[in-house]
Design goal:
This protein has about 100 residues and is α+β, with helices and mostly antiparallel strands. The chain has one domain: Beta Barrel (OB fold (Dihydrolipoamide Acetyltransferase, E2P)). It has a 5-stranded antiparallel beta sheet, with helices on one face. β1 and β2 form a beta hairpin. The longest helix has 19 residues. The mean pLDDT is about 85.
Length: about 100
């Protein structure tokens, strides 16, 4: 069974081993470096779109395939900083 076009964030990456885990709906989805589409490289904090298939062994996590990066970790951090700044302005009555 496969599920298409889901969104998650790369939570862990083991560069020496070539795999990691995507945080998706409170669970870890296994991802191998070969699952990244050409031109994309793994980096913790990335926002990803991916398809995944369920492992045949019930003791194994779902497996990500067709992984595409939609936001870099720097973009995610910048958006969070902007959001915090806007919230601070609202809290101070500046907006």
């Amino acid at each position: 069974m496969s599920v298409k076009n889901k969104k998650g964030q790369l939570a862990k990456w083991f560069a020496g081993r070539g795999y990691g885990f995507i945080k998706f709906e409170g669970r870890g989805v296994f991802v191998h470096r070969e699952a990244y589409l050409s031109g994309f490289a793994p980096e913790v904090g990335q926002i990803l779109h991916f398809d995944f298939s369920l492992a045949t062994d019930k003791n194994r996590p779902p497996i990500a395939i067709n992984v595409r990066v939609t936001k870099s970790p720097k973009s995610v951090a910048a958006e969070e900083a902007i959001k915090r700044g806007l919230e601070a302005l609202v809290d101070q009555g500046g907006v």
